From TrEMBL:
It comes from the Eukaryota. The keyword Cell division does not apply. Coiled coil: none annotated. One of its GO terms (cellular component) is cytosolic [4Fe-4S] assembly targeting complex. This is Cytosolic iron-sulfur assembly component 2B. Residues 48-118 form the MIP18 family-like domain. Component of the CIA complex. Component of the MMXD complex, which includes CIAO1, ERCC2, CIAO2B, MMS19 and SLC25A5. Interacts with CIAO1, ERCC2 and MMS19; the interactions are direct. Interacts with KIF4A; the interaction facilitates the transfer of Fe-S clusters to KIF4A to ensure proper localization of KIF4A to the mitotic machinery. Interacts with CCDC117; the interaction is direct. Transmembrane segments: none annotated. It comes from Stegastes partitus (bicolor damselfish). Keywords: Chromosome partition.
Length: 163
């Protein structure tokens, strides 16, 4: 959140965080093959996506309902992860940054075999097509991550905040 800047959504609706999933003994056993599923990605997101900080507010993306477990799709056998996110307002100028933060968190956390698709929930943003195009373009994402100023902002979104 930048100091002194006017907030686009000064009074966002805040949602309660969902509880942590209890792990079974077989899920904790590293010798047992445990397919990755949507809840695991969301829990990873608990440490990955759920806890990503909104660039504008001192709240997580889960608390703003930008990310929800029902919008995470995982195909472990096909090595794909899809995350749909919903900006808090239709003209959110932070949508690309939020999507990039989600994508970076997953790229850093998941095995390399996974193809990651991060996109805006259909019909929830005025520039949905343009933002989705940017997030799907590997070269644009790579170029964005080479920009030290932008990378610093992404890392701030990904850093843990004390609530």
């Amino acid at each position: 959140m930048s100091g002194g800047a006017r907030l686009e959504n000064a009074n966002p609706v805040i949602f309660q965080r969902s509880g942590e999933r209890l792990l079974t003994a077989s899920e904790e056993d590293e010798d047992v093959h445990d397919p990755i599923d949507d809840r695991e990605i969301f829990d990873i997101l608990s440490h990955l996506i759920r806890s990503i900080n909104d660039p504008e507010h001192p709240l997580s993306l889960e608390e703003l309902n930008v990310v929800e477990q029902v919008r995470v799709k995982v195909d472990d056998a096909g090595s794909t992860v899809g995350v749909e996110f919903t900006p808090t307002i239709p003209h959110c100028s932070m949508a690309t940054l939020i999507g990039l933060s989600i994508k970076v968190k997953l790229l850093r956390s998941l095995p390399d075999r996974f193809k990651i698709d991060v996109h805006i929930s259909p019909g929830t943003h005025a520039s949905e097509e343009a933002v989705n195009k940017q997030l799907a373009d590997k070269e644009r994402v790579a170029a964005a991550l080479e920009n030290s100023s932008l990378l610093e902002v992404v890392n701030q979104c990904l850093s843990s905040r004390t609530m």
